[in-house]
Design goal:
This protein has 956 residues and is of the alpha/beta class. Helices cover 19% and strands 18% of the residues. The strands form eight sheets. The protein has a 23-stranded mixed beta sheet, with no helix packed on it. The protein has a seven-stranded parallel beta sheet with strand order 16-18-20-22-24-26-28, with no helix packed on it. Helix 9 packs parallel to helix 14 and helix 9 packs antiparallel against helix 15. The protein is globular, with a radius of gyration of 36 Å.
Length: 956
């Protein structure tokens, strides 16, 4: 009996020990529970397993797991670091809230989504919470005020919404507060000026509004403050000048107005960024007293007046950015004496006079941009004395003299732009000393001496433009096409002579412009080696020989202009296989024979072929059929010959009378109606156009933005889509000017406006008729067939982006589309997408209203806020369109909704929508398109990318 009692006691004692051990290690179980909520595709938590680690006494077995920090005796778990492990999922808070002793919690750089668990704030020992670079959403949870020891709260780059959390201001120990890069809205609470220990405040990149509270000026301990990239109203509070410890202040792109306040009391300030606002007035002279300044950027405002002479006191300044303002006057000589200045950006102002001649002599200048001002005189001769100048931008000024003394030996140069000045002297660069040079534009100057032969040593050169140096002369150096990275070579109107160099190797070049020179000889057939060539312009030269048929093998060729030369022989028939060719011009040569019958030739219009007397066929006059003479008939001597000549003479007189009468009738018919031709439309008679339009039949689809949409067959068999527009007579000149702008837009992803037939108050727009339907039908939203695999969708997406990018960035001024929808994406014979209806929104809105000035070419190339707003709307519509294509038309107007959804969940939907997206490469493209679409549909126009950026992003 006693033995049994002892045995039971031993068993009970051992059970009690095991229970204590188990009870002493709830943290490992909590971590395993947390692991069950986490998706871990890279298996980075593989060592978090039940049997791993050793536990003895009160030790925690999880202390040996990755990302876990414990006290020295492993009795307390104080750190959880899961940063950068590619984890995602939604956290309930049930398990992380059980880690009672936690001091440091780091979940950063993952893809966690959903709401942030408020149970985290039950961990009252926490000193650091880092949840940055995730996708937590919903309003920031309450309860953080009880975490009294918290020193760091980093929630950068998430998707929080609602107001900024007010109770954070009660955390007296907080030193770092980073709530940037989410969707917080409303004003900054005035209570945020009450922090006792705060050193770092970052609220930028949200949707904050209202006025910046003057209470922030009471933050005497803050050293770094970023609150820009929001939507405030009003001015910068002068009280910010009281933040005595402030070293870094960024309130850029924040919609601020009013003058720049006096901040001279910020004696420790090193960086001040106030660019992209609406600040007015002049720069306070007192800024010259902030001797600690290293970076000062006030660009892109409405500042006026000169650069303060007091800036000569800024001996620590490295970056000085004043570009894109309305400043004037001369650049103070003291700027050239700043010893640490490496970046001077003052372009697009109204500065005048010469640059300080010592500029660059006393500092290691790296980046100089003084373009688009009214500077005169010569370039400072020792501008590259420091040996580090990499970007020199001097274009669009009135500089004279030469450049050789300043830049010819500047081996650090990467980018040089001096176009649109009055520089003279010989070619300014020694390429054998400029091995890093990538971009050279010295066009529209007066340089002489030819392009140096050592240009072939510029192995990194990508862009080269010397056009409109009318006395440059000499020949094109051999080996120029062999430069491995060269993409654009432009030397138009340079008085260049000699032969075209052989195209033995031209792997990367996409644009060659050599028009208006004196080139002779033949076009080398090895031009077919230039596989990436998109534009070849050799017009207005003295080239001979035939057109190489090898040009048709260039699959990317978009523009080919060989006009005004001495070319002979027939038109190569294989050009009919070149689907991307948008402009072909061989006019004014000696080409003979018949024009091939493929549609690509007739689309170019007669202007592409005129001036070749021996060339015939559509779109020129028909080729004559030679009729053999009747046997026994002979025109010669005798009465029969005289009779024949009399008949010919009478016929000629009758023909002349008919022509004169026709011209008279034609002129009368033109009193009210006029036909404007664009590239691709044959020059028909007015009566033929009217007759064709009278038989206009409805098309299969209706376009809501136009008053009439029908199709008509013109005399040569070309089918056109016709749209009718109306206006008040006083608006005729403005409207016709805008229509000309639309008609001259040519890109393979834009439907072509072929012509315009109008009078004083109405007209008809004649477009290419594309019978292959629109994007609505291709996505199956009207019962048609689906787009099919991902490759087909990606082709459509790329075409839409290319076309819109052309309208925004290659048309001057830019043309907003205005109505970018699935109905207005149509397809040509090769199923290449084309943007239709571009620009028509503004014509259809003109009943009684003057056309906005911003849409008419003014010659300045400037874009004002009205156009920028419309372009931004286009970008948003593009994002919506991409989402529709991604989901086969299921999602419409969904960009705003998707912004608040976890991206991983949306991405899974997209993978499911695209059954073809099963390979890794296709998934990468789908993810990229989704990310671009979400960027385009951001609520703030200023946060959306430009179409040029969109195109770059889609290229990876």
């Amino acid at each position: 009996m006693e033995v049994q009692t002892v045995t039971r006691s031993i068993i009970a004692f051992m059970f009690l020990i095991q229970f204590k051990i188990f009870a002493a290690d709830p943290y490992s179980d909590a971590l395993l529970g947390l692991q069950s909520e986490i998706l871990d595709p890279s298996n980075s938590l593989s060592d978090w397993i039940t049997g791993s680690g050793q536990s003895s006494g009160v030790r925690i077995k999880a202390c040996s797991w990755s990302g876990i920090t414990c006290t020295r005796n492993s009795s307390e778990l104080i750190g959880l670091d899961l940063s950068g492990k590619s984890l995602f999922g939604t956290l309930s808070g049930k398990y992380v809230g059980a880690l009672a002793d936690l001091v440091d919690l780091n979940l950063s750089d993952n893809s966690f989504s959903g709401r942030l668990p408020m149970e985290i704030f039950n961990l009252t020992n926490l000193k650091i919470i880092d949840i940055s670079r995730n996708n937590f959403s919903d309003p920031f949870p309450g309860g953080i005020a009880v975490v009294r020891q918290l020193t760091v709260l980093d929630a950068f780059s998430n998707s929080f919404s609602g107001p900024l959390p007010l109770e954070i201001a009660r955390l007296d120990s907080l030193k770092v507060l980073n709530l940037a890069g989410s969707y917080f809205e409303g004003p900054i609470p005035p209570e945020y000026g009450a922090f006792k220990s705060l050193e770092f405040l970052h609220l930028a990149g949200n949707s904050l509004s209202g006025q910046i509270p003057k209470e922030l000026g009471s933050l005497q301990t803050v050293e770094h403050m970023e609150i820009g990239y929001n939507y405030y109203r009003g001015s910068i509070p002068a009280e910010l000048g009281n933040m005595s410890n402030l070293q870094y202040l960024d309130i850029a792109q924040a919609n601020l107005s009013g003058p720049v306040p006096d901040l001279s009391n910020l004696t420790r300030l090193e960086s001040l960024f106030l660019f992209r606002n609406q600040l007015t007035g002049s720069i306070p002279l007192s800024f010259g007293n902030i001797n600690s300044l290293v970076n000062l950027d006030l660009s892109d405002n409405f500042l006026t007046g000169p650069i303060p002479t007091s800036f000569a006191n800024l001996k620590n300044i490295s970056l000085l950015g004043l570009m894109y303002n309305y400043m004037n006057g001369t650049v103070p000589e003291g700027i050239a004496e700043l010893p640490l200045l490496d970046t001077l950006l003052i372009w697009n102002n109204f500065f005048s006079g010469p640059l300080p001649q010592n500029l660059g002599n006393n500092s290691q200048l790296k980046w100089l941009d003084v373009s688009t001002n009214n500077f005169t005189g010569s370039v400072p001769p020792r501008i590259c004395a420091g040996g580090k100048l990499s970007k020199a931008m001097l274009f669009s000024n009135h500089f004279t003299d030469g450049l050789s003394s300043a830049l010819s030996n500047c081996s650090s140069l990467v980018r040089l732009r001096v176009e649109d000045n009055s520089f003279s002297d010989s070619f300014p660069l020694k390429f054998n000393l400029l091995s890093d040079m990538k971009y050279v534009d010295i066009s529209r100057n007066k340089f002489t001496g030819g392009i140096p032969g050592e240009i072939s040593q510029a192995v990194n050169l990508q862009y080269f433009n010397v056009s409109n140096n009318r006395n440059l002369g000499e020949s094109i150096p051999t080996g120029i096409w062999s430069l491995p990275l060269l993409q654009k070579f432009s030397a138009s109107s340079c008085n260049i002579s000699g032969y075209l160099p052989q195209f033995d190797s031209c792997n990367s070049i996409s644009v060659i412009e050599l028009n208006k020179n004196h080139l002779s000889g033949v076009i080398p057939e090895h031009v077919s080696n230039c596989r990436d060539l998109e534009r070849l312009d050799l017009a207005h030269n003295a080239l001979t020989g035939s057109i190489p048929s090898e040009l048709a093998n260039l699959s990317r060729l978009n523009i080919l202009d060989l006009s005004h030369n001495k070319l002979t022989g027939p038109m190569p028939s294989n050009f009919g296989n070149t689907s991307r060719l948008a402009l072909l011009n061989v006019s004014f040569n000696n080409i003979s024979g018949s024009i091939p019958s493929e549609r690509i030739f007739t689309m170019m219009g007669p202007n592409a072929f005129i001036g070749n007397p021996l060339l015939c066929g559509a779109p020129l006059q028909p080729c004559l059929k030679i009729v053999p003479p009747v046997a026994g008939y002979r025109v010669g001597n005798g009465s029969s010959g005289k009779l024949a000549w009399a008949f010919v003479l009478c016929s000629g007189i009758v023909l002349i009378i008919m022509i004169v009468g026709a011209l008279f009738l034609h002129r009368r018919s033109q009193v009210q109606w006029k036909l404007v031709y664009f590239s691709g439309l044959p020059r028909f008679k007015a009566k033929n156009i009217l007759r064709s339009l009278s038989y206009c039949t409805p098309t299969e689809t209706e376009a809501p933005s136009s008053k009439l949409l029908c199709k008509a067959v013109l005399p040569t068999g070309i089918t056109v889509a016709v749209r009718k527009i109306e206006w008040e007579e006083k608006q005729k000149k403005v409207i016709w000017g805008y229509i000309n702008q639309i008609g001259n837009a040519r890109h393979r992803n834009l439907i072509r406006l072929l012509g315009f037939w109008g009078n004083n108050c109405e007209g008809y727009l004649l477009y290419d008729y594309l019978p292959n339907g629109n994007l609505t039908e291709k996505m199956g939203t009207k019962g048609g067939s689906s787009l099919g695999n991902w490759a087909a969708k990606y082709k459509v997406i790329s075409g839409i982006v290319r076309g819109l990018c052309y309208l925004h960035h290659d048309c001057h001024p830019p043309i907003p589309h205005g109505d970018l929808t699935v109905n207005n994406i149509v397809f040509d014979e090769t199923m290449e997408p084309q943007l239709a209806e571009f620009g028509l929104k503004y014509l259809s809105q003109m009943n009684g209203d003057a056309l906005p000035r911003t849409f008419i070419f003014s010659g300045t190339g400037e874009t004002d806020t009205g156009v920028e707003k419309e372009l931004s709307t286009d970008i948003y519509s593009c994002g919506e369109l991409l989402l529709e294509v991604l989901t086969n038309g299921r999602l419409k107007n969904s960009g705003e909704v998707l912004q608040s959804k976890p991206q991983e969940a949306v991405l899974r939907e997209m993978y499911n929508e695209n059954a073809g997206g099963c390979t890794h490469a296709e998934k990468v493209e789908i993810k990229l398109v989704l990310q671009v679409a979400l960027m385009c549909t951001r609520s703030s126009p200023s946060d959306r990318p430009s179409m040029k950026d969109v195109q770059k992003l889609l290229r990876g």
